[in-house]
Amino acid sequence: MKRVVDLKEKGYVDKEQYADAPVDFEDAIENYRQILDITTEVAETVIEPNSESVDIEGPHLENGRMIYASKTYENLDATRKAGLWGISMPRRYGGLNLPNTTFSMLSEVISAADSGFQNIWSLQSCIDTLYEFGSEEQREKYIPRICQGETMSMDLTEPDAGSDLQSVMLKATYSEKDGCWLLNGVKRFITNGDSDIHLVLARSEEGTKDGRGLSMFIYDKRQGGVNVRHIEHKLGIHGSPTCELTYKNAKAELCGSTRMGLIKYVMALMNGARLGIAAQSVGVEQEAYNEALAYAKERAQFGEKIINFPAVYDMLSRMKAKLDAGRSLLYQTARYVDIYKALEDIQRDRKLTPEEKAELKKYQRLADAFTPMAKGMNSEYANQNAYDAISVHGGSGFIMEYKSQRLFRDARIFSIYEGTTQLQVVAAIRYIMNGTTLGYIKEMMENEVADNLKPLKARIAPLVEKLEAAIAYVKEAANQDMQDFLARRLYDMTCEIIMSLLILDDASRAPELFEKSANVYVRMTEGDCNGNAAYIMNFKAEELDSFKAL
């Protein structure tokens, strides 16, 4: 964090101009702690108590406009009064200038209180893309509004373009008469779709059919031209409105350059969103564990509290281990993102030194490799922990009066939106196959751990060898379909080994918090990796046909 904060604060120059700017690293960390305390208070006293009401009421449609659940407006008001907007933006625009690592912590806290509201609140991070690629005039126009608490959305998907965004057909035409771009078409499954400021992916190049004809646009709700046609009725995250939008000559501004919308800008937007969902997932992992633990401590059967039954404490220990390992992966990823994003920001003001350029390249690569792992694994763990929380509750978990059912419903979308887990595997597998993640694992294996944890680390060493052998085996087969088929198993092995090493590091630093989870997680990893390695090493390309159209 020392490197992250030093880069983010650019030598602490803001202290001369802004009273709330930190004067050094220690002051910055204290500032982050205070903001975390404020966020926790808002989450505990406002957002969580409102969560059941929001889940029941949900948003509704009136005259082409989305109306939030009534308690959502209370949540928005509370976060605005607490100054929890413009989290990552520079102070000169009215922002808090916090790193992604701290933003992820705040997201986790708010998600634990209500993951549906976290969606609305965390979409403020769309402003990062505008800050990165927009003009200074656009920054001055829009960023202060987000810092004051106006909401955002990213309008990407369409009825015929979900995961395949290069098929987007919403049309953007430049109007000489109006001196701006006009947008026409339909967007579907847009989270917080009636927001104040939208980033919109649209086809600006007539006659094109792929990603090279797409550009990014800024649409301001004040301009009019976009209506909500439908609000989806969803399984979970009821407080987060999912809208179908119709664009009719909606006036918009180009963000950045034409033809770069999907190739460059959406990739940046999506990586930020995926980190946000990893944090959202960890929040629900934590809350599911809390609910299960509290119930197990109170519920008695056969004259004894169920927390004392091996079948129950085995389940709880695995929930806690997944939570701790997933959180460690989340914050490791966030720090990598912070370092390269801060260096990119510095690069706007001056040339980077050769050492800084090498650092930027290194951490950008790590961030690209780790983001799909953090999103994929944590979204799956959120689903698993929510499922297990209901199991611990037994029949009561199936009753609507208990929170565990809502956590289960809310968590299901995490492994679907902003790229399914299968797409996270696609994003990560190139770094697994080209040796990036394996090189990282080998570096981590050189790190020292506490003496009492060395036997656990020794159990990881043969798993690394099996992963390396499995990767080599798949490479040697030189069959793309086979690689795609086995990719999820290679991904799981890679992620679990990395998280095992991260949690061993955590346990070495704070054994009172993480030693038990390290013990449980390494054993889980051992079982999973041995099974996956055996599957991969005994698989033949000619067997693929037997799995088709079962």
Describe the structure.
The protein is α+β, with helices and mostly antiparallel strands and 550 residues long. Helices cover 59% and strands 12% of the residues. Strand 4 and strand 5 form a beta hairpin. Helix 8 (261-298) packs antiparallel against helix 11 (403-411). It starts with a helix and ends in a 13-residue tail after the last helix.
What is the H-and-E element order? HHEEHHHHHEEEEEEEHEEHHHHHHHH
Number of helices: 16
Distance between the termini: 50 Å
Low-confidence stretches: none
What does the radius of gyration come to?
24 Å
- What proportion of the residues form beta strands (DSSP E)? 5-15%
Name the shape in a single word.
Answer: globular
Q: How many strand elements?
A: 11
Q: Summarize the biggest pleated sheet.
A: 7 strands, mixed
- Helical percent range? 55-70%
Secondary structure category: alpha+beta
Oligomerization category of the chains in this entry: single chain
